[in-house]
Amino acid sequence: MMHLVDTIEVESEHVDGYLELVRTLGMAVMTDAGATFVSCATTPGGLGEPQHVQVVWSCDDFVHWNEIRKNMVLDPRYHEYGSTAASLRVGGSRRFFVPVTLSPSP
Amino acid sequence: MLRRFEVYALGPDAPVDGVHALEAACRLCGRFIPEVLDCAIGRNLSDAPVQLVWEHAYASPDAYGRYMVHPYHAVVVDRHLLPDAPERIVIDGPLGAGLYGYACDTPAYRMSGGGVRRLVLLRVDNEASETDLSRLRQELERTPEDVPEMVVSVMAANSMGSAWFDGVTPIMGPPRWTHLWEQGFPSLDALDSYRRGESTMAGVERAGWDAGTGGIVKRSAELYYEVWGG
């Protein structure tokens, strides 16, 4: 199992809009393409600085991701999702995480 | 072999660091994915509204398939490109989908020691006969006989534009640009010499492709850039 972790920097007044975008269009596009929703969380608001929205998706591996990417690119909704997300964020990153095994201490 | 070009229009607010990171991701791709051959980039110098070109090749569709599923592709390259990627710096360009390419038997596109690449995008009449297409291809690929400074001349159908997933199977409709004419020159001066020269094809290009091609070329656009290899 592999995780795709998007960490999005959003001005506080756009956090609700970004979450709604993920809940609706993002969820539909990503899950229809074959990804699995894992979690969504935000940093605390009301602190006088932009917030971060973390959205985590999972898939089997990079072969699976290749299929998901194809399905997304061929889905017209994906491009609407991407452009709307871009209009709401001020920064962020995407990273892929693969599991590791931690051996017990000797 | 599969010859492939990705062409990027950069967002007006694309950060310089991000542009350099995308350039490096493309230029160095072959170091991390051995199946990616002849990797090079260039900054487009034509009037076409795109800024960056990544040229490369694969020995076979199987090799292309290994590139498609390689972590470097998803993690490092796509970070700058996918529509929902937070670090995206490209925009959808008016030249149509920014992926072009063709199948070839040999790497006839190679230039020793770098130089200038010119890519002429052609929209050929879909009613054109195979005979007319074959004649056009022969005329274009014979151009170096008249133009010694043109060291590469390959004309082929833009098969990668619609078969970008596996390099073979079209998964989209016909591309806006049906054919490519890939050229190579040792320098910008050599390219300029061709464009201003008296060769048959330079004249055809200046005349807007109406003369000498049977009228089967309906539109064209060009990109050219100094090749910066990986």
Mean of pLDDT of chain A: 96
- Largest β sheet strand count, sense and barrel closure of chain B: 6 strands, antiparallel
Could you tell me the strand content of chain B as a percent range?
25-35%
Q: Name the quaternary structure.
A: heterodimer
Q: Using the CA coordinates, give the radius of gyration of chain B.
A: 17 Å
Q: Note the beta-strand portion of chain A.
A: 25-35%
Radius of gyration of chain A: 15 Å
Helix content of chain B: 25-40%
- Helix- and strand-based class of chain B? alpha+beta
Name of the CATH architecture of the largest domain in chain B:
2-Layer Sandwich
Question: Helix-strand pattern of chain A, N to C?
Answer: EHEEHHE
Based on the coordinates given, report the CATH architecture of chain A.
2-Layer Sandwich
Question: What is the total number of structural domains of chain A?
Answer: 1
Unreliable spans of chain B are none
Helix run count of chain B: 8
CATH topology of chain A: Alpha-Beta Plaits
Could you explain how this protein is built, in words?
The complex is a heterodimer of chains A (106) and B (230). Chain A is 42% helix and 32% strand. By secondary structure, chain A is α+β, with helices and mostly antiparallel strands. Chain A has a single domain, classed as Alpha-Beta Plaits (2-Layer Sandwich), CATH 3.30.70.100. In chain A, β2 and β3 form a beta hairpin. In chain A, α1 (15-33) crosses α2 and α1 (15-33) runs antiparallel to α3 (76-88). With 230 residues, chain B is an alpha+beta fold. Chain B folds into 2 domains: 2-91, Alpha-Beta Plaits (2-Layer Sandwich); 106-229, Alpha-Beta Plaits (2-Layer Sandwich), CATH 3.30.70. Chain B is 27% helix and 28% strand. Chain B has helices spanning 16-27, 29-32, 61-68, 71-77, 130-141, 143-146, 188-196, 200-206; strands at 2-10, 37-43, 52-58, 90-91, 99-103, 116-124, 152-157, 179-185, 217-226, 228-229. In chain B, the strands form 2 sheets. In chain B, strands 1, 2, 3, 4, 5 and 10 form a 6-stranded antiparallel beta sheet that branches. A 4-stranded antiparallel beta sheet of chain B has the order 7-8-6-9. In chain B, β2 and β3 form a beta hairpin. The radius of gyration of chain B is 17 Å and the shape is globular. The mean pLDDT of chain B is 95.
